[in-house]
């Protein structure tokens, strides 16, 4: 057995001791570890997401029962019911679930990369950078979904490059990256405000509504574009998942177990920014989902592993639930989902703070 194989076996043994419900599936030379608790929690969260999406399809100015919603999906359904469900409500409901999953995984990628629970893209300025890219496209006259998505990706990548160069000092430390990211994000926020107040009134109004984070404008065309872009970056997550788990043990240990830290970091940044940009281009910046989803997933699983499936399910539940509250909690007003996400995220962080304080 090579030194790398011995180190990997030691890592797996330690992981298995920390999670008693770990199981290993072996088929020939293929082996995969999985957690029974993780699978059960992911299945439960997936079921909850489906129920929330179904509820979103039922509620509205024209209330429908679950049976009517299911019938409306059939070609021979009532024309009005089919239009209400399929054209008006379904893109927004599915968009909330898909975008929540994207944000959750992106937050988990950056938290694993920085080895810090505050290392989500909205905290370290990457979401703001993606927003800046979209604003530049809007000011330049661009309106198409693909143009906005391209602006979001470019803005996010340029922001990440800036933060990386400013934070790099004989290596990249997670805490320094977060501090620099907060500073860069603050400057970009000021720049975004200047863009908004100096542009045409129509552009400023659109940027103001969109900048609050909203799913009201999601249509099938924009949803398919965003989902396709996000899926491309999502393909980078499985190959780097193991490397992110190894990086959690430190770069030296990660190298001993066969990981290539710099390659993992680059791919992780690209994947995380791409997922955020796919969401930001359509719905605007939606805060706290990327920060809270990995925390909640780890508490449900009671482990610190990078678990994309469970984290995606938590993100989908959070954003779908937040959008339901934004639409129906206040009968006289429909709030931007970003406002509700801030309220939920703030309440969650306060709960965590008081919980940890009680332990102390």
UniProtKB/TrEMBL annotation:
It is found in: Cell membrane. This is Iron chelate uptake ABC transporter family permease subunit. It holds the Pfam family FecCD. Its main location: membrane. It comes from the Bacteria. Coiled coil: none annotated. The chain crosses the membrane at residues 39-57, 93-111, 123-140, 146-167, 174-197, 217-237, 266-293, 305-326, 333-354.
